[in-house]
Each structure stands twice: as C-alpha cells, then as structure tokens.
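S1.2 Input.
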Amino acid sequence: MRKLIGLVGLGAALTYFFNPQQGRRRREMARDKIASFLNRGAGESEQLAGSASAQAEAVKEKATHVTQEAKPQSDDATLARKVETEIFRDPEVPKGQINVNAENGKVVLRGEVMEAELIADLEKRARNVQGVQEVENLLHTPGAEAPTAS
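S1.3 Output.
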C-alpha cells in the first residue's frame, strides 16, 4: 500500500512539473525556491557558526587575561632605566641633577631639585614602577644638607 501511494505521488509530481503548458514555469519556480531555501539556511548556519566562534574566542581571551602570570623581576639596570623613564617624563624635572640606582629591587634617588614638592612627587612616581620593592629618597633642595644613606 505504501508503495502504491509513493508511486501515485511520483506520478502526480511528474505531471505537475512536466505539464506542456506550465511545467517549465513550475520547474523554474521550484528550483528558485529550493536554491533560496538552501542559501538562506547556509547563510544562517555560517552566521551562527561565526557568532559562536567569536564568542568562544572572547571567552578564551578573557580567561587568558585572568590567569596571566606575574612578570619576572627585572634586572637592576633595567629597573633603574624604567624608573628614569617614569620620573624624567615631566620636562620640568632636572635630568642632569638626579641619579637613579637600583639594587635587588631597591631604588635609590640622589641629587638636588629646586622644589621640595618635587622630591615627594619623584619618590611616588618611582614607587609606582613595576618591580620596585623599596625607594630610598636622598634628594634635597639647594642649600639643604644632603641626606645620608641609612
């Protein structure tokens, strides 16, 4: 019985699509609808796949940044150069009058500056550099006695 229904359906489809008066138009419309359906489905699946991969990439990046390892301690010369870069960024800071040394994460600032406020500001900037564990500030103003190392 199922075979008979299948054959009747096939005969009706062939008659519908191969009708001498409208068969050609019906075949073209069916072909266009099927192509449109397949293209729409492919476009949606590509869009969904692209969206899913973009979300997966974003989650991966977020997880990478959360578990980022601490950077290794810089050597003393690199640390001193980093501190110099930070404190001499301001053009008002007298570059030739300040000496920066680093040893095992401890930074020593020596020299003479014109304003007392600048002394505290330079110490603060030096402390904010990554890798600096301690700052010894031996800066002084003109006319003031130079502090000695402890």
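S1.4 Remarks. The longest strand covers residues 106-112.
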